[in-house]
Amino acid sequence: MRAKAANWLGERIDLSAMRELIEHKTVPVHSATRWYYFGGITLFLFAIQVITGILLMLYYRPTVSEAFESVRFIMTRAEFGWLIRSIHSWSANLLIFVAFVHMFSVVFTHAYRPPRELTWLTGIVLLGLMLFFGFSGYLLPWNQISYFATKVGTDVAASAPLIGPAIARFLRGGEDVGAPTLTRFFAFHVIILPFAAMALIALHILLVQQNGMSTPPWLTASSVRQMRFFPNFFLRELMVWYCALAILGALAAIFPWELGEKADSFASAPAGIRPEWYFLAQFYTLKLIPSHVWIFEGEILGILGFGLLAAFWVVLPFWGVDRAGAARARLVTGVGLLLASYLATFTVLGYVK
Predict the structure, then answer these.
(1) Range 68-88 burial, b when 16+ CB lie within 10 A, else e
(2) For residue 270, what is the DSSP state?
(3) Among 57, 2, 67, which residue's Cα sits nearest to residue 259?
(4) Digit-coded pLDDT (tens) for 188-228
(5) Which site in 129, 130, 223, 279 is 20 to 30 Å from 48, CA atoms measured?
(6) How many CB atoms lie within 10 A of CB 27?
(7) Sequence-ordered strand ranges (E) for 148-300
(8) CATH superfamily of 28-263
(9) Domain locations in the chain as residue ranges
């Protein structure tokens, strides 16, 4: 019966490419092989986001009058609703954290080298989409913290030179955070960003498959032992996913995501309002910059600095490799360590100060 079913399906769908992948794809085995798992964990957490997000959409209502109450209904009356929302929120944070780890693992193993420039660029765009996912989803419960955090975030966007006010109006749907903002953020979060992310993920995976798994430059590719992707590496990846699911389930059950109070635009902002952890380093940096530096506004200088740093990081494959094609390992590793240390240190400082 199984053979007949396989033959019937094979006559109607060309599965030769899939069979070729299963039979011939390999993974290099060396001291840095463990870092390969983080790309798979990122994909796994994104899948959890999609599944739990669809379940939440069955009850969520994206209007100012009903958003908070619909989330409260999910948490208090829908069966296991509190758990689904908690998993969705925790997996969003874990997804962004793992995506950052994946990015830095690519940097430290120099996996951005030719011909993998497009793989790096699609990965950076995906990381940006994940951050926008977090920013847009944060407002949807329409509670006090998310409302004022969104005001702070859009105010920072409005401070950008030239196009800042236009960006802020586009995000808010007007001059201030309100009902149009919630509608737009919902559309971003459940329609625009998911379709863009899935298209980019497909392209990213295709590029990884086309170029193969990168071998660090300090190893000779011909001397590195290869492991079959299926079933050897795939089963190991499944075990890693199982561990990630266990961590996610423990966090969601032991530390359920709180709802807070309903947003009130006439209330005072809560004391110590701050953005989510993945924006804390930038937020704290802007707090440290004086209001004026010579004739320039400090906030504008900070935003310009972040923009230049982001552009510098995006084009890493083009400055991280010299004309002879050899990776400038020490320079790139040093810059990566500095950036990782900055993000970790200023994120912690943003929490405690």
Answers:
(1) bebbeebbeebeebbbbbbbb
(2) P
(3) 67
(4) 999 999 999 999 999 999 999 999 888 888 888 778 899 99
(5) 279
(6) 20
(7) 225-228, 292-293, 296-297
(8) Cytochrome Bc1 Complex; Chain C (1.20.810.10)
(9) 28-263
